[in-house]
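Good morning C.,

I know you're traveling, so I'll keep this short. The sequence:
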Amino acid sequence: MSASELAALETPAWLDTGDNAWQLTAATLVALQSVPGLCVLYAGLVKKKWAINSMFMAFYAFAAVLISWVIWAYKIGFGQYMLPFAGRPGPVLTIQNMMQQSSLPSAGVSQNFPLATMVYFQFVFAAITLVLIAGAYLARMNFLAWMIFVPLWLTFSYCPGAYSLWGGGFLYSLGVMDYSGGYVIHLSSGTAGFVGAWWIGPRLKQDRENFQPNNVLLMMVGAGILWIGWNGFNGGDPYAASPEAGVAVLNTNICTAFSMLTWTMMDIIFYKKPSIIGAINGMITGLVGITPAAGFVAGWGAIIIGFFSGTVPWLSMNIAGKKWRLFTHHVDDCLGITHTHMVTGALGGFLTGLFSTVEGAYGFGILNHGGAMEGNGRQVWVQIVGALFIIGWNVVWTSLIMIFIKYVCRVPLRMTEEQMLIGDDAVHGEEAYCFLDDVDGLVPTQSVEARAALKLDHIHAATDYKGQSILTGQDLESGNGSSSHHPHAKEGNGEQEIKLD
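The tokens, ready to paste straight into the viewer:
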């Protein structure tokens, strides 16, 4: 290639370096929401025996979605028209693909940054959707079933929703407004969490009755990353470093703060005590509630949405979730994803139809008459149609995928009873907070006691017939040494293995 052609590749005429820099920054903020944000939030919120499994489900989903995304899934969500709800699948891995100008061919719009930037930005949204779903399945879903579920649900459930609303599909043409994923991400993940929890079945009774968080401080770290990362979540969706991006970021924080405060007041009114876990739930519902409306509404609209996102999901979680037989006996949504995402996502989308402004819509790049408060009552029923499609589609496809895994792949959806009793050690052979095992004064767990007994047995077996230890002082301290005198020891490749009868 000539020098001029190479220069055109480096700084093409369509490139806006500010837009590209902001888009990559926003995408990175959203990625941090999943890894480590939700990983550590989940790990702290569950019982100690599920900390590893919870983190790993989120960690696996993040990686598996990316590989699926670049090989076939991105183009289903944002590619050339194939069906009213899906684009034509295909890879986006050639250097020519990645360096060309980003565009949404079915929507007829383009952006001032490369396609590689758009692919990564949309990937982190797809990934966090699967990570959110995991929150409903924790503490009993078979990990192999989860490994199969992730690429299938991404392909048949997430991508059609993304294409229909964002990629130029039929809901986009109808005029449904979803600024940054209230429907595509939160309503779909909440619905899939609800339906999948029914198919998988509930946790063990003892886990449902006592599921105290094992590390509230770790939860708070994850919650903080989630909140601040949402600046990229909503601020990146104008696809430009524009005034609209600033409005979206400010509204996101206003709504989240008001929702958190409202949820805390609800806790004080009904339970007489403020709860940090409740405040985190209120923070999450505020983030979810503002997502479909972030840049469409004024600041007062953000406060109103914050009030409703701090009350309606609170009532759903604390009344329906605790008293309705559907939730107490059949749908065991471990972390309440149904309430914080399904209920709040639908609520936020409906309120968008009420409070969106003409100026906000125009700043986003769409010609729209605003919501009902601007005299456009049509927008309310359009929003309801969009919500019903996302709910219906996800009920059907989440069920079909669960049926496929269980009856066609012959992979159990649930862990075994033994795995659910033991937790991480049985599922992954690892335990969280292993550094606690050697701290003096702690009450030992059964696994610690078993290791201690094995160590003692090892020391006794390594003592000669005169009662003299043949281990060195260092070996006595660590419990290591020659195992040739142990009746159940066997050697191989320079390592000793000791088995318990």
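Safe travels,
E.
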